[in-house]
Amino acid sequence: MDQTSPSYPVKLYIYDLSRGMARQLSPLMLGKQLDGIWHTAIVIHGEEFFYGGEGIASCPPGGTQLGQPNSIVDLGSTEVTEEIFMEYLSSLGESTYRNDRYHLFEHNCNTFTNEVAQFLTGSKIPAYITDLPSEILSTPFGQALRPILDSITISPPGGNNFTGQR
Predict the structure, then answer these.
(1) pLDDT of residue 147
(2) 59 a catalytic residue
(3) Is 11 helix (H, G, I), strand (E, B) or coil?
(4) Which of 11, 33, 39, 111 lies 20 to 30 A from 134 at CA?
(5) Cβ distance 120 to 114 under 8 Å?
(6) Do residues 97 and 55 make contact, with C-beta atoms less than 8 angstroms apart?
(7) CA distance linking residue 37 with residue 18, whole number of Å
(8) What integer pLDDT is reported at residue 166 of this predicted model?
């Protein structure tokens, strides 16, 4: 008798916060081409989970005011049940990913989705997303803007703060 564990699909939702402006303006402002300013979320168990200045939040897939994602990456599948995943997120929300730990360049939505993706599937999110902060900061304009950018927090409206309950 086959006793395989159930498997749950894991998706990465990718949004361009600049809505195309980064692609147009980055060559002028940064001297290099950026395709977007990326916000990412993990979709599993019928819910979208992300991290921002308000902590870990969730919504129905595509349910923030960002609308539908620019692209969706299939990260594979996991045997992590909804119950175990919620316990995992609760522990992250009480420690590493509290709202006061958010930092636009070093500890953001993409740091969160990268860590959660590795927990669920063993895979990282695409490097073009995780490398974006260092790409921006490697330019003179990025360095000049860093004091302003360091004070910015991003929390897409439309999500519900995560409490570990569903």
Answers:
(1) 80
(2) no
(3) strand
(4) 11
(5) no
(6) yes
(7) 6
(8) 47
Distances (CA, A) of 56 to 124, 156, 160: 19, 11, 9
Q: Is 39 a catalytic residue?
A: yes
For 61-84, the pLDDT digits (tens) are 999 989 999 999 999 999 999 999
Q: Is the dihedral of CA 91, 100, 131, 61 positive or negative?
A: positive
> For tokens 């599993």, what's the residue?
44
Q: Which of 39, 45, 59, 107 is catalytic?
A: 39
Whole-model pTM over 0.85: yes
> Euclidean distance between the first and final Cα of the chain, in Å?
33
Cα 145 from Cα 165, distance rounded (Å):
39
**Under 8 Å between Cβ of 70 and 78:** no
- Alpha carbons 114 and 123: distance in angstroms, whole number: 8
